[in-house]
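Obj: model holo form, ligand = 2'-deoxycytidine-5'-monophosphate.
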Amino acid sequence: MKHIAVAVDGPAGAGKSSVSKAVAADLGLVYIDTGAMYRSVALFAIQNGIDIKNDPQSLIDRLDEIDIGIKHGEEGQIIYLNGVDVTGKIRTPQVSVGASDAAVIKEVRQKLVAMQRKMAENDSVIMDGRDICGYVLPNADVKIFLTASVDARSQRRYKELREKGETCDFEKIKADIEYRDYNDSTREESPLKRVSDAVPVDTSDLTFNESVALVKRIIEEKTGKADTSGVRNEKQ
Ligand code: DC
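Output (holo structure tokens):
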């Protein structure tokens, strides 16, 4: 396949990561979860007792101490914070809120966006986040805005956490998602919004397999190159 870049944006819990990961595996693209990078910065802050929201300067002052590494294994992206595998540690509700707070900081974004652009130069990627279509990869071959209703997204997060054996409260998850939606879409730096050339995909009423098939079809239509032989279980 020629070098391509697929950009996927959307709100928290819309299924961006799981859908993009499956599409990457089927089409031979490298999957890059940029949210995990913001989460790693938040984890660094938490581990070092930094209050991101009330004292962002302390985080800015220590940005040079944060080294984020990404490897691509069988299971998808493995993320390293200063050499330590933190893939399993960055999915807690505390890190989720911290990541949203870290993501409003201009200096944090500058550091991570530079890394993300380099990754897309080196490999054919499907990259998901909030600002990928409009800012990180404005010349991406394919742009998708993946979304779902707040209720559908909260249900999915709830199920995901329960399956991992974590105790969680649905109303708290929903409130966190609403907080992050508000934070992510009203911040000054690269707020979450659908750019006009991004194809909207609402997954509220789609199964996971249907969402994957739809995204693959969009990529194929836009690039004419993607191999969609593995299309799963389509509705229509
Ligand atoms: O996709 P996620 O839930 O793992 O992202 C965690 C937070 O990071 C989210 O609240 C918004 C922020 N983020 C961002 O601002 N820009 C990105 N490209 C990716 C994530």
